[in-house]
Each structure stands twice: as C-alpha cells, then as structure tokens.
Design goal:
single chain, 233 residues, alpha+beta, Protein Transport Mog1p, Chain A, 2 domains, 7-stranded antiparallel sheet, two-stranded antiparallel sheet, 5 helices
C-alpha cells in the first residue's frame, strides 16, 4: 500500500495535501482565465459594435441631415402647393340650369371646366360634366370630378338599383336633404371600376343625380358642390 495515501482511520499525509491544493489552484486559475477570455471577447464585441455604429453615424451624419432637410422641404412645398390649389378654386363659378328642369344651381371651383348639354328631347335633358383644367372626352374613361344629370326616370326606381349593392356591402346608403327635399346619398363602389359618391333627389317628375366619380373629389363634392346646391323641387 502506498504510504503517501492515508490509511484507514488516519489523516492524510502532508505530501498528498500539498498535491491536492496545487491541483485545485491550477484548476481555479484555468477557470478564471477562461472567464476572463469570455468576458474580454464579449466586451470586445460590444465595443466593436458600438464603435461601428458610432463611426457609421458620424460618417453619414451630414448625408442623413441633408436627406432629412430635403424631405422636410419637399413636405413643406407639397403643403404650400395644396394650400395654393385650394385658394385658386375661389371665387367659385356657377352653373344655373333651365327653370323647366328645376333651376338646378351648381357652384364649383373656378379651376374646373364645365360641359353641359341641355336637350328637352333627351332622356337626360340636363347632362353636365365638370372637371379640373378641361373636360376630357366621354370615351376617355375619365373619373369626372362631377357628373350632373336631370333624368327622365322615377326616383324610387333609380334608388332601387343600389339595393343589392347595399346588401353586399359595396355601397352605403344614407339620407340627405337639400332645398327642403329629402334624398339619398350613396358612397362606395358606384361602378365596376369607380369608387365615389352619388346623391339623388326627386325633382318633380324627374330625378336629380349628382356624382363624384372618384374619391379624389369627395372633399370638393361635400364642401363646395353639396353645400351650395339648390334647385326648385
């Protein structure tokens, strides 16, 4: 039996204890060194990442500042253009229809052009188109800012055409009033390829129909056309 190992019932001898302490000390140093290396790598990575971000921000600061200034200037310019466009719409122009067809009065932006056909022999004795700049040809498939119609058709029957679309959720139908006359407003998919708004009123034995053929013109339709609309029911 190795005399350096402790015998049963005896304490370890001194050389064995010294050897154990030495091994434990070496293991502790290795663990501490490993921890130091790992921490150094993590800290080094974090420092490198932070430095790279700082360096990138510093190098591109002027470029980003110039881009931000450019975007801000563009936004301000667009806002000013929109404000100028609104101011240019007034004073408004006016269309007054024949008294035989309800003396329909339409007020519209002076930046719009109008083409109105008045023909008593036609199924639509008053048929007008209003659009910014100029009125495109009818075959151009343009979504007009305003389509004015006095129709030789029954008001109730014309409204009924939208019942199915209303049930399917394609349009919403709400009541509206003008010139002491109750009518309806229809918003949504007013045609297969057009989303906009329609208002209809009974006009004696006819129907008055106004259409904004694009949602682009909804604000003008509400704030200018409908607010100033008048007719003799």
């Amino acid at each position: 039996m190795d005399p350096n190992y402790p015998q049963p019932g005896q304490y370890p001898q001194q050389p064995y204890v010294a050897s154990q302490i030495k091994r434990n000390h070496s293991l502790a140093l290795l663990i501490a060194l490993a921890i130091f290396i790992v921490v150094s790598l993590v800290l080094g990575y974090l420092w490198f990442t932070s430095f790279s971000k700082y360096n990138d921000l510093n190098n591109n600061f002027e470029q980003r500042l110039a881009l931000a200034n450019e975007e801000s200037a563009k936004e301000i310019s667009n806002q000013k253009d929109a404000e100028l466009a609104e101011k240019e719409k007034s004073p408004y122009a006016t269309y007054q229809g024949p008294s035989a067809f309800g003396s329909v009065k339409i007020v519209y932006p002076k930046t719009w052009s109008a083409f109105v056909a008045e023909d008593e022999s036609n199924g639509t004795p008053v048929n007008g188109y209003f659009h910014p700049g100029f009125v495109p040809g009818l075959r151009s498939a343009t979504a007009f800012a305003l389509h004015l119609e006095v129709i030789e058709g029954d008001y109730a029957q014309l409204i009924k055409k939208f019942e199915t679309d209303s049930k399917n959720g394609k349009v919403t139908v709400t009541p509206i009033q003008s010139s002491d006359t109750a009518g309806v407003r229809i918003d949504g998919e007013i045609d297969n390829k057009k989303k906009g708004s329609i208002v209809m009123f009974p006009l004696r034995d006819k129907t008055l129909k106004l259409t904004a053929e694009s949602e682009q013109f909804t604000n003008d339709f509400d704030e200018i056309i409908l607010k100033n609309l008048s007719f003799s029911p």
